[in-house]
């Protein structure tokens, strides 16, 4: 006979969910109700109840959108259900939909006229509705006044500008945005876009973006009124403010039309659920799918963007805006998956054409900035990385190869070949493998070397740049190194600084192939320091030419793997200051090398763990073993960090942190973490804006980067007052990144520091405690109270002690579980008597919870509970004594029935003895005296003991 595992049926799952809800485990209840809804044997009426119950869970977690959706589902199945109506009413109120909340409350009163609970709610909602009507009338008046000033026939320029700014403020509120749209603002704004005043144009574009934000209907109306071609023609204007404003508007339109933010939120919830419960049965989150109308709208914007990549009439800033727009939306992870559509158009060719543009050539009409080529590299890389299948990558490779075949095929014009070499440089900075493949094509390297040997400085400059980028990866450039070195050495002797510094960087790359290994030298002894000295000379150039300093910085990014070079650089104050000043330049390509230098100087790069057994095995096999340089020891690193901080590196890191590049963000996070390792610098980091910069770094980037940034935030939160380090709303924003560290896959130190940080944050106020719960922090924090690791267990207990000040957490201890029992047992354990901090935290938690009678009853169910509390109350440690006596006082005050049981134990004797020994209240024992006196007075009041004369 085959045995089949019993599968929980609908009823069992429903009851299990109810138990979880009663005990305050709302996430577990949601999961269980969801499973029950998936059961095929559930009747429609039963499903209505489940939706209603799940809505209650979401309400507790303050997830009002989800709660509202479930309550609506319940009402569709069970019309006019009182509980579902009441829950949806609460959701609408919290979402600011007062009219809808009032309708539900009114309907509930109609269904249950005798329901007294809804009457005060109705009165409150009515008052809110009246206030909203007044506000709306006020908003209507403001909009009318601002319309006259903004779109009237007056000539007062300042009043018009101020009116548009006022409308932007009004449009940030839903009521204001709706009223502005109803008044025909889009048509009027479309006319203002023809204004010769750039301030008016930028203001109009910003107002349109506010109106379109997260509202599909309004976004579509704006797209219908202002054609796509008109928007992109405005983007091409030679005014960076206007180009940026149009880019922001188009980005807002795409996000609203595709409802991208809703999709991301849904995907994030799915990922959080998978993390909590595992991937079993969850499957992948479905990709973003759009109805035909909205797909056509977003595609129209994309195709127009692609068409204008290489538009000769576009300004440099306009071209950068187009490229940045495409970078933002091309991926499926963060955008709307335009990668495949690039292959279906000639988008790749257009990007390569821009990447190969050389402004110095006389016939060039395409305008580019110092950031354009890097934007092309990033876009090419993002498109290539999107393709997982070999088929798609082959298509990509074919389109790239076709472009270069056409360029190199025309041998009559050397300029075309120069443009092709420049485009190869862009590929080598983006999808390196593709660039390396093109470089390996027959004849390409020969053309590059021929250009390098040309007497024309422009030819030399383009060739040496390509050679420098080609030598970026040690394992893939061995074929060209032998031919490249002599040419680089020759070009390094050039009198043209622009060529000389590029050749210098190429030599620096070749000289850094040994990495941090002190025993592996690619160049002769002293050559590395000589190259570094040359780089510092360019960095200190009196002309302060940004291009020369950028290339010198890139050379140092490789050479600073050598500890001698690190020490020389931090000793050169002028070079260090010049390096930090690079944060002020607009050229984005300077960020990565500058951040790399900071990483190398602070030794915050990834270090491989050396396993002693493998080390011995390597010695036995006579393998090369990397050696640490003497100047890479902790005392030298600490000294270097001190000099960097003094020179103003933190300000540079904050300025750099606005980048969208994930790899650059990781480098910045590593350096921040290295700085805050020293307690003395944490206040300075906060003072200079580091804490504010770390929050976005911890929320977006590579996994390593987010972890480093989160750990840096945790270190700051441990030693500083969170109200000072994270003022206002920031103390709520910091919760999520720090909670990412409380995970079994993170190191013990990361978990420990995160728990300490959360302990401090939880002590602030109930808003922070609610945010910790909302982010699913309670189960993760509680997990470590069961750990054998002494410090982790203690940190968890201390954090829970602060969290139980929240009523929602307290309810979790009141459910059917052994949470209270565990706390009492920790206080009683002989093995843990030396861990005073753990016992103090557990007693503190019990002291807070014991103000509730149900907790007092739970305490008394634990074996020898009175001996535990009595023993601690009799100790000399005043902190422990106070907490134990506070628990006893709460138990006595909870009711006469519990007080009678307390009197029957040795605790009465303990109280009487302590009353005599403690004596009169002093500053030290005031709280203890209060607990004893209150307990005895209450026992006298209950007539369980008689007062003495």
From TrEMBL:
<feature type="repeat" description="TPR">
    <location>
        <begin position="48"/>
        <end position="81"/>
    </location>
</feature>
<dbReference type="GO" id="GO:0051879">
    <property type="term" value="F:Hsp90 protein binding"/>
</dbReference>
<dbReference type="InterPro" id="IPR016024">
    <property type="entry name" value="ARM-type_fold"/>
</dbReference>
<dbReference type="InterPro" id="IPR019734">
    <property type="entry name" value="TPR_rpt"/>
</dbReference>
<feature type="repeat" description="TPR">
    <location>
        <begin position="10"/>
        <end position="43"/>
    </location>
</feature>
<dbReference type="InterPro" id="IPR011989">
    <property type="entry name" value="ARM-like"/>
</dbReference>
<keyword id="KW-0963">Cytoplasm</keyword>
<keyword id="KW-0217">Developmental protein</keyword>
<keyword id="KW-0802">TPR repeat</keyword>
<dbReference type="InterPro" id="IPR024660">
    <property type="entry name" value="UCS_central_dom"/>
</dbReference>
<protein>
    <submittedName>
        <fullName>Protein unc-45 homolog B-like</fullName>
    </submittedName>
</protein>
<dbReference type="GO" id="GO:0048471">
    <property type="term" value="C:perinuclear region of cytoplasm"/>
</dbReference>
<keyword id="KW-0677">Repeat</keyword>
<feature type="domain" description="UNC-45/Cro1/She4 central">
    <location>
        <begin position="345"/>
        <end position="510"/>
    </location>
</feature>
<dbReference type="GO" id="GO:0030154">
    <property type="term" value="P:cell differentiation"/>
</dbReference>
<keyword id="KW-0221">Differentiation</keyword>
<dbReference type="InterPro" id="IPR011990">
    <property type="entry name" value="TPR-like_helical_dom_sf"/>
</dbReference>
<dbReference type="GO" id="GO:0007517">
    <property type="term" value="P:muscle organ development"/>
</dbReference>
<keyword id="KW-0143">Chaperone</keyword>
<keyword id="KW-0517">Myogenesis</keyword>
<dbReference type="Pfam" id="PF13181">
    <property type="entry name" value="TPR_8"/>
</dbReference>
<dbReference type="Pfam" id="PF11701">
    <property type="entry name" value="UNC45-central"/>
</dbReference>
